[in-house]
Design brief:
The chain is an alpha/beta fold. The chain is built from three helices and three strands; from the N terminus they run βαβαβα. The chain has one domain (2-63). It has helices at residues 14-25, 43-48, 60-63, and strands at 2-10, 29-38, 53-59. β2, α2 (43-48) and β3 (53-59) form a beta-alpha-beta unit. The chain starts with a strand and ends with a helix.
């Protein structure tokens, strides 16, 4: 199976990475992660290590303008 993860806020990516690891053990492939706000504190890089792109609707910089 293939899934897209959706989250409200991505900070370090820890929760998303934990989800990717659990789903991987269940033979589920995460193809993308979407979040409303990327706080730009490492989530994108953390997910990239698993081959998952982070697609934010807003970055913290954009949201705070």
């Amino acid at each position: 199976a293939r899934v897209v993860l959706i989250d409200d806020v991505a900070t370090t990516g820890k929760a998303l990475v934990e989800s990717i690891e659990v789903l991987s053990r269940m033979d589920v492939k995460v193809i993308k992660a979407i979040c409303v706000i990327d706080r730009q504190e490492g989530a994108g890089a953390a997910l990239a290590k698993y081959g998952v792109a982070l697609q934010p609707i807003f970055t913290a910089d954009e949201f705070l303008k």
